[in-house]
Each structure stands twice: as C-alpha cells, then as structure tokens.
User: What shape does this take?
Amino acid sequence: MLVMADDLTRAETHFEFGRNWAEYAKKVGEVEIYEAVSGLSRLLDSESLAGKVLLDIGCGSGLHALAAIRLGARRVVGVDIDADSVSTTRSLLEKWAPNADVVVEEKSVFDLDEKWAGSVDVVYSWGVLHHTGNLDAALRSAAELVAPGGLFVFALYRRIWMDWFWRMEKRWYTQASPSARRRARALFILLFRMGLLVTGRSYAKYLKHYHGNRGMDFHHDVHDWMGGWPYESISPGEVESTMRALGFEPVRSFVNRGRLLGRNLGIFGSGCDEYVYRRSRE
Assistant: This one.
C-alpha cells in the first residue's frame, strides 16, 4: 500500500506497477510481440536500431525491450524502479531472447550512471516519466543520456481539464483495498462501455482490436491507469519548449491519438502523446 511521503520520487510512494505487468507478461506471445515491434517501428519510422544501444527507462513487462531486440538493437539496457518489473523483464527476455545482449537493473531515472551521459543511441521511455514524482526532472535526466545525433523516444500523458480529479482518484486507488479496486474498475469499464455505445461504437470490437495498441491489454491498462500514482501531465507546447532548450529538435510526434473518450475533458482519463526528438550533434 501507499506510504504517503513528501518525496514522491521514492518507490514506496508509488502504485505497484510491477505486479500489474508481471500478471500481463504471462499472456505475452507472438501476437503481442508483433504489435510491440510494430508500435516501436512506427515511432522510429526509417531509423534503424541495427548495431545501436537502446536504454528502456521504466521497462515494465520487458515487452518493448524485446521489441528493440527484434528490431536489431545491439544491446538493450532496461531499468525500472519497481523490483517486480525488473524480475518480469528479466524473465521475459530470458524466454524470448536468451542470447541477446541485455542488462536489466532496478534503478530510478534519477540515479542512472553518469558514465551513460551523452552516450546512448536511443533512449526510450513510454508512459513512465509522468509517474516518477518529478516529471520535469525526469525528462531532463533522461534527455542527458542521449548521444549527439541520438534519439529520445517517449510518451507522456497529455494535460486535460480533469487532471485534478484523476490525481485524487489515483491517490485513493493506490491506498484502496483489492475489493474496492475491483469495484472501481468495474464501474469505470461500465461507464466506458456506455460511452462507446452512445458514440455508436462496439465494446466487443474495441476489445478485439485493442492488442493493436502496442501489444497491450485493455484490462491491465485500466488497472495501470486507475492506479498510476504519482501522476503528472504536460502539453505538447511545454514538451517542445523543454526539449528545444535542452538542444533537441523534433523528428515526429503523434499527438491526440488517445484511445479514451472525451479526451479534451479527460472524462475517461488521458491518452499518451508520443514524441521523437533528436539531440543536436554540436
């Protein structure tokens, strides 16, 4: 359970993301791997990972570290503040990529080795930095690791009107009992199904095609969303300003592509905006 503390960068103040991803990893197969590879390929576009080092900050289940290996990365380093995520990532990579050059460590983005500064070909962090307890510092810390000419690939929650509500909900959910969490998820899914219905969409079809969302699973994502504490969000304009100040140029972005209804208000939460930036060679 959550230990309330002033320092939200400490692991013990966070929602137990790793347990969720450990459960999800049990269902990972070639279909999920294919979709994860497709999702990473879409972000990289024509960029090749062949011969490159990729650092996955917040490796979670390990699925996207595996996707990087499938795309030819020479070496993959995965880090996560959650011990369960580290264990899950190691197990998944041992199963699906036993001969790959991989390192998986239990470590925060704020405690990464200085020797990596300015040396990593691709730094990847999808939907993680907004859960660190200090989004601005986490974004800057991760960016410092990118080599000149290298890529920083990341996704962050877009800022929405209902951030205030979801911040309170996540604090409550992270402290709630398992039964209270189940009831909250059931209510969320019921309301979500009603939202699909009134917009003329099928819940069954939505679930059928959901694995196309980077190989993820709807019910595990609901649990992750509802429990995602700490929680911060950011606008595309703020991302652009920060990254340019750090010496990065935009390569491509996928903004306002969230799966959730009412995304301008955030009635069902905030989707992630995806960004790819390149560090100046100077």
Notes: The longest helix spans residues 178-198.
